[in-house]
Amino acid sequence: MKYTLVAWMRDKPGVLNRVSGMLRRRNFNIDSLQVSHSETPGISRMTFVVDGDERVADQVIKQMRKLVDVTRVENITDKPAVLRELALIRVRTTPETRAEILQFADIYRAQIVDVALDSLVVQVVGSEDKVDSAIQLLENFGIIEMVRTGRVALLRGSAGRRNGRRSTAVWRARANGNP
Amino acid sequence: MSTAPSNPGDLPRPADEPREMTGAQMVWEAMLHEGVKVVFGHPGGAILPTYDALAPHEAAGRIHHVLVRHEQCAAHMADGYARATGQVGVCMATSGPGATNLVTGLATAQMDSVPMVAITGQVPTNLLGTDAFQESDVVGVTQPVTKHNYLVTDVEELPYVLKEAFYIARTGRPGVVLIDICKDVQNATGIFRYDFSVDLPGYEPWPEYSPEALQAAADLINRAERPLILAGHGVQLAGVSDRLVELVEKAEIPVVTTLLGVGDIPETHPLCLGMGGMHGEAYANRAIQSCDVLIALGMRFDDRITGRLDRFARQAKIIHFELDKAEVGKNVVPDVAVVGDLAQTLPALLPLIQERRHPVWIQEINEWRQDTQQTDILNFEVDELIPPYVIRQLWHAVKERGQDPIIVTDVGQHQMWESQYFIHERPGQLLTSGGLGTMGYAVPAAMGAQMAYRDRLVWAICGDGGFQMTLQELATLQQEKLQVKIGIINNGFLGMVRQWQQLFYSKRYVGTPVLSPDFVKLAEAYGIPALQVTRPEEVVPALRQAHETDGPFLIDFQVKEEVNVYPMVAPGAAVDELIRRPRPAIVQGYSGVQPSW
Ligand SMILES: Cc1ncc(C[n+]2csc(CCOP(=O)(O)OP(=O)(O)O)c2C)c(N)n1
Description:
By secondary structure, chain A is an alpha+beta fold. Chain A contains five helices and nine strands. Chain A has two domains: 2-79 and 159-175, Alpha-Beta Plaits, CATH 3.30.70.260; 82-152, Alpha-Beta Plaits. In chain A, the strands form two sheets. In chain A, strands 5, 6, 7, 8 and 9 form a five-stranded antiparallel β-sheet that branches. A four-stranded antiparallel β-sheet of chain A has the order 2-3-1-4. The model of chain B is unreliable at 1-12 and 585-597 (pLDDT under 50). The A-B interface holds A 8-10, 13-14, 17-18, 21-22, 25, 55, 58-59, 62-63, 65-72, 165-166, 168, 170-172, 175-176, 178-179 and B 33-35, 87-88, 139-140, 143-144, 147-148, 151, 167-168, 170-172, 197-206, 208, 324-326, 328-330, 333. Thiamine diphosphate (TPP) is lined by residues 410-414, 437-439, 463-466, 489, 491, 493-497 of chain B.
């Protein structure tokens, strides 16, 4: 099963390396990993998809939380969420196929973002399945090159509003004192 | 941990107001704030400014630097110091080879949750990434073997990094934090301050335990007919050995320990079954396999304790008390998990536990124990020098001195014999590399422990193989005038590996016979008095002489060669499928009849 996890982390040099290094070292199977800025300056947001069972997902979350720079990790697999991927696909065209490709693009609500005499660049945005099936279809015409992002995700509705940052005041006094 | 570590010079109270100083000075200023008294290290170009800034502190006796002969040992010494005192150990090295030499020591400490801060010099910021002379990507190299690490490229960040590093190293589950400081940052001037609290929003060192989980655990324990405690290093890290004994006695629960849990409960306690797992006693492992409730305290179900996982404690409901959430469910999925600091959860558990007696269960265990004791190697007449005898005599000799010793073992057969035949009565009596199993650990770690407690009796017990991995530190030992006693269990082989070759590779001893120098002469070259022992009757006098000699002493115990550690659970086997000690009928007088000892 595939799990969609979202992690927030301090935007420090090498933080992506820390996360990917941990995932590699602990032999987790990661399908995709996408990092970007979040709404908070200094905090990056990472969406990643893990392949495994529930125990693996649980371990990934716990091991992520153990990284000092990671501030929060959430499993949104079972929550209502908008999940999106984006693909840019350069397709070979001929005068005969061009119209058909445009028609398919329309069905997928894909956009044509670049046009040349013998090719088109189609931009597909949607769920993994939708992007998959668009690619499959376009393969019939000949894909010259392609690039595709990993999954990004945002919770729907009020579930998506972040609850306040966990208070650090509960840290135990002994922790902060000198030995 | 009872007496304060010896302190070269009084700790001054550093001024609290922010002050201007160089990055190099900041390093030491922070250490004064953290109460650091000893640093183990080796200098080089990229760390020179920091070494230079130590001069006034060393002159005033505030911080002492121990010069090691190899950086690996700086980390092992800091490790031994930290394990013995519970305080953060500090080591220091230069860039490139200095830093890479540290790695084994860092990994060793991190695996065993030892609080440590390592400081390394790095090439100047303008040379970063150019393959400059002695540049290596230390943050990259050490990331997998540290709790956290930093590259400091701006002097203004340095005080924050220093404070964070010590905080992270000692809080929660302790670990290693490395700070790599560019040389120009050490020379640059900035404002030093320490009057802030660390702000790490994602770091949760002390998770609050759930009272419901604790109650669920108590209910299981109260209903158990065959309860068993599996106690690990966490008991000692949390300092709750007394509480453990209370729990054990209140509900009459026998205890098996992990290797790092040795000493959690006095091994003289009737309910202590000693160490379990790969070289645990048969009765301890049978207890694991037969209990109906297994209470795991501050341990992580390492493969050396569980054996084959799908056959581990199959009849038991498992309760896991653990501070590190990520350990819960990693190897074994418990029925009840109590996540939290044992220093809180154990005292909170006690009032929920009913006074219970389990006569049938205890009787059963005692019968198994009797069975083992009848075949025990020590019940034979010793006519050749065998390691278990040496270890047991060491215990007698130490006992005779009436001191609370620290025994530091290396890795291999002697390490297992020590855990089996030395009777540990207090937490912190045994320091050993459990998780990483690092040969060469014992001598430097023993020196680190001795630095903390100059008057205590510290023994390093090594194999002839492991001793030769770090023996260069004998010079450091003399330079620091430490009185570490060293026992080499010299069997002419990399014994533990030879044992595996004997058992699993048809006795093809490839790469395991090991030639050693004359250790007595070697010790004398370093000015360390030494003795060679070849006969059983020489053991006790030699140990006495070692104890009566002021300063260090080395004994080369030339033991019988092909002796094996039993019982043994073969890798991949369940813990009750063990190879037992041979019966007396088969092996007479250690004559080398197979299987040999
Ligand atoms: C640095 C390192 N290299 C290799 C090993 C693998 N190893 C484990 S035990 C052992 C043999 C140790 O031999 P010795 O030090 O003579 O001790 P003995 O087992 O004979 O008591 C070896 C090579 C290790 N644990 N650490």
